[in-house]
Each structure stands twice: as C-alpha cells, then as structure tokens.
Design a protein that fits this description.
It is a single chain. The protein is an all-alpha fold. It is globular and about 40 Å long. Helix content is about 80%, strand content about 0%. The chain has helices at about 1-5, 10-20, 25-30, 35-55, 55-65, 70-110.
Length: about 110
Amino acid sequence: FELIKGNTDERLYQIAEALRKGASIKQLFEITKITEFFLEKILNIVKLEEELSTLDKDDKLEMLQDLGLNESGLDKVIKERSNILDKANCRNVINYNKKHDKKENRRFSA
C-alpha cells in the first residue's frame, strides 16, 4: 500500500489493482484520502475492464460504441497507446545501450 499513500505516477494503477483484489472504497479512502466519489469512479472503470475481458472483439466494440466511443475514436486511442509503448521501448533500448556502452568503455580503458 506504500505506492497508494504517496503521490506517484503509479498510484492510480495501484488503487485499481487494490480494488481488483477486493479492497473496499472505505479502506482506500482511509489510506489515500481520495473522496469516495472518485474511488467509485475508479471502481466503475475496473468493473468495465473486467466485463470487457469476458467479451469477444465484436461484443467489445459494440459495448464501447454503446458507451459513446466510435471506431475512429477507438482506433485513435489504440494508435496513441501503441505510439506510447513504442517510445517507451525505444527509451529502454537506448538506456540499455548506454549502460552497455559504459561497461564496454570501462573494460577497454583499463
């Protein structure tokens, strides 16, 4: 629960995970002091995620469209997520290479 207490980038994900594992709104309010209204909204997202995970692709699309998302909107979200993941992967590769290069330079400079 340490990540839930602090104001970190991971806090929202940790709260959602705690809800998935059965934490109550009241418990999370006591720890985070986030109002129950917002915690309930996070719980609604978790429940929607769980419901979507049981559906096939066509039923998912239909449900999301019923919620007001159209195909072009969904495509945009998917492409943006893909771009974010691609950038993150590139950063990881660059960071790995920088670390690896430093090790190689130390080995050959001695």
